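Quick one: structure tokens for this chain, please?
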Amino acid sequence: MALVTDLLNWLQELPQPGLVAAAGGLVLAECTIGLGFIAPGESGLLIAATTATSVPRFLILWAVVTVCAALGDSIGYALGRRFGPRLRETKLIRKYGADAWDRAGAVLERRGAWAVFFARFLPVLRTLLPAAAGASRLPFRKFLPATTLGALCWSIVHISLGAALGEAAKKVEGALNTGFLVVAAVIVGVLLFFLLRLKKRKALAEPEPKAEEEETAGTPQ
């Protein structure tokens, strides 16, 4: 059965608005500090991207995900602006990303708004750096263009990758289904060959009957 193809076809038949909304929601949650450590935004986007089989679907998903990613970053920035360095002392940050928080602050000091752009492609930092940017008082007029550009590039890379993986999976499965009988026949043939060879070796290794036993067997009782 073409399980992968059936699954991809099922995903593509789902209502497009709901699928796009779910992908956007997961991305927004991943980019929002506090939820970013548990929300599978990147995985959800790759799965949703397998349905981007046409230009309109691709563009709609790209636009929604970009907006949600930038919005999630902006929420994180606002929280960092509001609570400042005290965020580092919260249980959540101390448990999941205290070291990453420190790295984010160090990168911000060296790179400024460019750190916001590049952090988009790095797990954990993607969640923490917007809040760290707010806590470090990076001006929002510099933060917003950087995070929007990062979201644009990150989303198009992942959507393209998901769409390509979906098409590749269909082609690979189709090839496997077409050549399944041939491959199975080859495997069975190889197994039979080695089985017969093993039996032949065992037969040659058995000792020959002793001459006395042959004479005894040949003497009438």
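The first helix runs from residue 3 to 13.
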